[in-house]
Specification:
single chain, alpha+beta, five-stranded antiparallel sheet, five-stranded mixed sheet, 49% helix
Amino acid sequence: MGETGPLGKKKGYGLRTRVAVMVSAVVMLVLLVLYVIFRNQIIPQTRHALEEKANAVARTVALMPMVAEGLSQGRSREIQAYTSQITGSNDILFVVVIDMDSIRFSHPDPSLIGKPFAGGGQEAALRGEESVSEGEGMLGKSVRSFVPVYNEKGKQVGAVVVGVSLERVHRLVRRNDWTIIAILLSGALLGAGGAIVLARKIKNMMLGFEPTDITRLLEERSAMLQSVREGIIAVDHEARITMINVEAERLLGTAGITGGVMSRHIGEYWPELHLEQVLATGEAKRDQLLELNGITVLSSSVPIRVDGEIAGAIATFRDKTELAVLAERLSGISVYADALRAGAHEFMNKLHVIMGMVHMGLYDDLRQYISGTVSNYQQEIGQITSRIKDPVMAGFLLGKLSRAREAGIQLLLAEDSYLPESADTGDMHELITIVGNLLDNAMDALEEQCIREIELAFDYDEDCKQLICSVWDSGPGIPEALRERVFTQGFSTKGEHRGIGLYLVKTSVEKLHGRIRLRDDGRPGTAFDVEVPYAVKDEETV
């Protein structure tokens, strides 16, 4: 069983074994190459050494006066005795002396003295030239050295043939082979031991992970860092940038800070971040507001510790404006703000009309205008308050009505709608988010339409304690192929940086444990039905 490693990963012995095998394989390959090189060198060198020995012996014998005299006088006894002594003391196969007619004057087998030389190859020596060749004679295969013999007058009187057995050459090569093999095996054992030690060391350095695991972890970490919506910058212990993700490059590029950043000092690139202080003190700095060439970012910086020592620091930051927009969308503040803004805008328009009529002295017309406005407003308020008993939703819908009028859109509240006051302000907040985003999407869909109508309906079921909210618009509708994707965050047919409205609606519906669906009732346009549990304040009945 293996031991448990970091991150709960069970460590095995695969890495150690593979490293040991790979290093051992490399060592064995190197040793094999060395063996081939050595062997290819030793065979020629061994043969050459024996040839040189044969040449040296042959030259020595050829220079002996007694050899030249014996050849000149036809006496072989002294030559035979001398060559026999030379053969025994130099560990060679034979020493043969021949005259100019190739007749032997000496031979390891005395019975062959006086007979012609066998094996051939002596022709060059009888012409006065030294030579080396292989041949097979009475004593077997040998490497032979031929040296001419001259008398004291310089006349050639014969030749000396010295032979070294080829079997001896092969025996020496085999002996050298075993020597080389022993040396290489010793090197292999040392290499294998070193491989095991090296594998153990590498495994400890890699925290027990396999190379494939490290590759996968690096790829996953890189993908995670590049996909987050926060800018991330990491520096080493010298405050030099070692990593920066795509979002950080985008934010800094928006602020006009561009150029190659890797290995640059963070103080040169973004001095206001003060990561040097984090490295020096080891204290984190969280939720700091920093100005970056006109962009306000919210930044946090923390030191990176390895074995108790500060090895670097990492800073995360995000555009404060984006955070504010996101907070507003998630909390529903934007919905209330839009409603108030529309109401204020409509109120200011009416004040301008009243001021103009006062300046012109059109008091009778002014009286009629105010009466009509008040009557319409009271009628509108009456329609809302008689059907919508929750004051928060009523005020919100009045704002939406004003905004719809300004946009030239007819927003109708169904006559049979009824919404009692909610017992939970949190639920009403989520319902505001749902209705607000559905109405906003409907208004966006009617921007280029001739018929611009929106119908809103509330249906409360007292027995089931369920509320059904329906929103229909006369827009172009949603194609069938896109209906499965409309609630996906970021999906929009209106361009980039959109596609959050219906996602927030779906999130709020799920938070209320309800459900939402696209309804197809045969009319053109788009219709959404939202059904959620709804608790009434003081158990009010319908």
